[in-house]
Write a structure and sequence with these properties.
The chain is an all-alpha fold. The chain has 11 helices and no strands. Helix content is 72%, strand content 0%. Helix 1 runs antiparallel to helix 7, helix 5 packs antiparallel against helix 9 and helix 5 packs parallel to helix 10. The model has no long low-confidence stretch (mean pLDDT 86).
Amino acid sequence: MWYKRSERQYRIALFFSAASLAGAFGGILAYGIGFMRGVGGYEGWRWIFIIEGLLTCVLAAAGWWYIADWPSKANFINDDERAFLNARLKADSDATAHEGFTWANVLQAVKDPKVWLYGACFHTLSLPLYTLSLFLPSIIKALGYTAAHAQLLTIPPYAFATILTVVYAVVSERYARRGPFIIASTLTAIIGYCMLLGNTDPLKRPGVSYAGIFFAAGGIYPSVALGLSWPAINVSGQTKRATANAMQITIGNLGAVIGTQLYRANDGPRYIVGHSVALAYLIGNIAVVSTIWFVLQRENSKRDREEREGKVQTEGEWLGDEDSRWRFRL
């Protein structure tokens, strides 16, 4: 609630880049914590969950005091700064509108085909995203490395993905476009999975598969970051936007449920089933993103035409993203 529409994507991408950055640091931590085997009578892998889980809980609890959802509730800014923030947000979107919760606004999101498309966008990315993040140590270990070395080898692909996520966010925001950049990034991931599937003997040529992992990670993470920003900047109406974001995450995470069943221990080192399904999902993502791009462009063109013909009201009550004055960000 602090940023204009044009500023939200970059912040969301920075937030999500922390996921790939956490993967990089997670590899280092997992390698080190793994040597705690026997401490307190626990296996090393248990300490990974205990230490990283406790850190998450502590930061989450601290967030109650240092995160303010509205400028009006922030005690670290003065009245002039608060007035400035409210003025810039009011001129840009509905962020400062006093909107009460109604089930009718929730239903608006459920009935909007674009919201379902945003969910499909994340769904077609979540399966490759979660399977890569969950099974990456196993995929690398199956190339002939020890479990400890596999943890260390997860670090470079995650670091590469973090850098690309930020780069895509900056460039995408500068050109005010998401669709073409998501497609380009997803194509990068597709190349990676083609390399993984095309390597018929990963044990003899582990470098080919490892390079494919770089392409996969470097393509998936930027696409997810950009895809998650679409409803945040295109859905108007606070309740409808909150519902749209929740629907996107819910629909998307169904892909993770499917993905957990795909990488079985006896499928290594090629993991044909898992990689093939991930590849199919990424191809589906290009189809979904192209559809969203087309739908939003068509709707903007229609509203531009109505504005030229004088059919758009320039004043009156705001009708959310169904208002003819609203333009979708592509």
